[in-house]
């Protein structure tokens, strides 16, 4: 079955620690995205990548970093510089071709809690 | 400026009745796509319906229809014959394919279906 997997589902970390959230897709999509969602709020774009080895900052990139070494993988690192990292993190992808109008496909999300 | 505006933070509807969730958008592009997603309490994002900016007819998918008024820049979601399982957050989103394929999400509407 094709889809997007995120691991782990729940993640706890201590203040001051970096943590990496995994996102893998087997949909052969070029574009991948990371969003942050706070309780009762919408999705805010952290980073996105159109192709391998290329990525751009979204609206709230400070305190986060990403890499795109493989088409299938787009890991997100939440660094100690992120002042309020407790949130729900969603990874998404789409084929990326222009002018395709495909929807975003989402992973199940990771709930990060900083203790 | 907000790209997507959802002005109804929460709504109630009686089971079996129809409900309209509002969405307005802002873009200067001629080519764009509009999407609606459902997010149950589990957190997964479920794609519901899509409307392209050049589509002349309103999109429909089962009990979901999109009331697209291009001149007013509105893309309201209509759910007919509401069911208890429709209780969830609903997000409107816009894609600008010629703007780095970015997606913009609204802040969401929490729909509660009453028995």
Structural commentary:
The complex is a heterodimer of chains A (115) and B (115). Chain A has 115 residues and is mainly beta. Chain A has no helices and eleven strands. In chain A, the strands form two sheets. In chain A, strands 2, 4, 5, 6, 9, 10 and 11 form a seven-stranded mixed beta sheet that branches. A four-stranded antiparallel beta sheet of chain A has the order 1-3-8-7, with no helix packed on it. Chain A is globular. The N and C termini of chain A lie far apart (35 Å). Chain B is mainly beta and 115 residues long. Chain B has strands spanning 4-5, 10-14, 19-21, 24-25, 33-39, 46-52, 60-61, 64-69, 74-79, 88-96, 102-105, 109-114. In chain B, strands 2, 5, 6, 10, 11 and 12 form a six-stranded mixed beta sheet that branches. Chain B has a four-stranded antiparallel beta sheet with strand order 3-9-8-7, with no helix packed on it. In chain B, β5 and β6 form a beta hairpin. The interface between A and B is medium-sized, with 28 and 25 residues.
């Amino acid at each position: 079955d094709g889809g997007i997997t995120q691991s782990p589902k729940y993640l706890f970390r201590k203040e001051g620690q970096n943590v990496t959230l995994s996102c893998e897709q087997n949909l052969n999509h070029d574009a991948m995205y990371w969003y942050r969602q706070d309780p009762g709020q919408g999705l805010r774009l952290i980073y996105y990548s159109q192709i391998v080895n290329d990525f751009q900052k979204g609206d709230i990139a400070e305190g986060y970093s990403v890499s795109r070494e493989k088409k299938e993988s787009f890991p997100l690192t939440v660094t100690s510089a992120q002042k309020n990292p407790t949130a729900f993190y969603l990874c998404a992808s789409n084929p990326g071709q222009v002018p395709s109008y495909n929807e975003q496909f989402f992973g199940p999300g990771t709930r990060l809690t900083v203790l | 400026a907000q790209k997507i505006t959802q002005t109804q933070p929460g709504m109630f509807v009686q089971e079996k009745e129809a409900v309209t969730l509002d969405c307005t958008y802002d873009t200067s592009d001629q080519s764009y796509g509009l999407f609606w997603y459902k997010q149950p309490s589990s957190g997964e994002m479920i794609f519901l319906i899509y409307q392209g900016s050049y589509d002349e007819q309103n999109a429909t998918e089962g009990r979901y229809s999109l009331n697209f008024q291009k001149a007013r820049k509105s893309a309201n979601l209509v759910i007919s014959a509401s069911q208890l399982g429709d209780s969830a957050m609903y997000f409107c989103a816009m894609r600008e394919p010629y703007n780095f394929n970015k997606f913009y999400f609204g802040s969401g509407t929490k729909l509660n279906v009453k028995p």
